[in-house]
## 1
Amino acid sequence: MIESFTFTFESYGARVRLSSNERSTLDGLVAVARVSLLGRVTEVDGGEPDIVFELNRLDNGDIMLVQDGTELGASDSELKAYRFFDSILRVSVGEHAPGLVFLHAGAVGWKGKSIIMPAESFQGKSTLVTELVRAGCEYYSDDFAVLDENAYLRPFPRKISRRTEDFKTYELSIDDIGGKTGTAAIEPGVVLLTAFQEDAEFAPIFETPGTGVLKLIPFTLSIRKQPDFAMGVLHKLSSRAIIISSLRGSAERFARTLLDFVDKNVN
């Protein structure tokens, strides 16, 4: 019988069980989870988990990642397996976290109000967040905008993940760019739906609350697992925030333009 090592924890209210057929691999999973979830990992005993991850060493030496009984893929590199687990873990916790809605978005605070910028990966949200923090905003996240039941933004301040021109990744801390991290929950301000286009001029289109909700759904992690709660929070966000759509040019130039817009339009 193959021995299995396990570790069960709660993070943001979601319960996760990790297991492996190697103690060292399990220890690596736990270490990744602690960093990925900003230290919010509390070991628990008993109870059914919401999410189960297995990372097992195969006979050929590869490592197989399994989530809830489904094989996600094998790798001959332990580092690659941990990186894959890192990204999948955050999304899975975001899907299950009770009382919270995780949006795939960059997020900052400006004068006590949130600025949330939903976007898929490789759309420049980390670059824009970096420039907004350099311009004086408080950093909340470059990965997920975490909203409570009142659509207030809460911090998820991972290190900012940036990419070089040849798509290699590196990380920046807020100290690296001379910024500040937000610590308090802040009320809705602006939701910006944007994409980069070289030399684009900022020409904001004001979305209605109903249209805003529809446009936010694709970025909402918990929409499948907690649809009623997620939709309620999206409605609150869309009714309390200004929701705009516009292309933008370079993040460095656009950051100040966006903050001027917020100053003029958000009370």
## 2
Amino acid sequence: MAQTSAIVDALKRALKEHGLTYQQVAEELTLSEASVKRLFAERQFSLKRLDQVCNLMGLEISDLIRRLEPEVRIDRLTVSQEQELVSDSALLLVAICALNRWRFQQILDNYQLSEHQVISRLASLDRMGLIELLPDNRIKALISHDFQWQKNGPIQQFFESQVQADFFQCRFNRPGELRLFLNGMLSPRSNDIMQQKLRRLALDFRHCHQDDLGLPLHQRFGVSMMLAIRPWEVAVFQQYRKPGTAKVYPGSG
């Protein structure tokens, strides 16, 4: 019974990942939505029905079984792997799509890349351990919830040199856009408190991202959020400072 429950739980997660609803499952099984909900609640799936639901997602029952095995997930790439990503813009594009759970056909439909170009990049990502490239070009992301890019590594340097300026070429006055710039004088303790709040906000962003991965692609939009705080004085003001009056923030040497 425990194994059956685990398989049904894996089936529910797979449906969410593919953006499928109980109503769509009901149509596939020729049942009412209420009957499908009862099947999941009571975990009363015949092999035939289990196979039908798997077919709806392009999966085999064996794929569900593999989901029960402990998965090796990575929380970061090596510096050389990040360098490989930034050295090939198409590879970086496919990587971002794959990690956001785009399907193979969706990448082809949205970008001017050939099947060969996408498959070769997916194969590279599979070799890196970022994804698992499954039969029929299905993509399974293998990053942990705590995945991070290398600090000051190639990806961050790429962002600073090529993305950051482009991000701020915007008036932030359209729907979905917001820019806040605050200025004040904080004690080191208040600065620490604000940094803690920013980290919690970043964690909330990650949780929302994970929750929304199960939605269909047309309901999700690429969103970037910049969080920053630092003891800082505008460069143009620094020229007016008297010698010896510049403050040194505690701990900065």
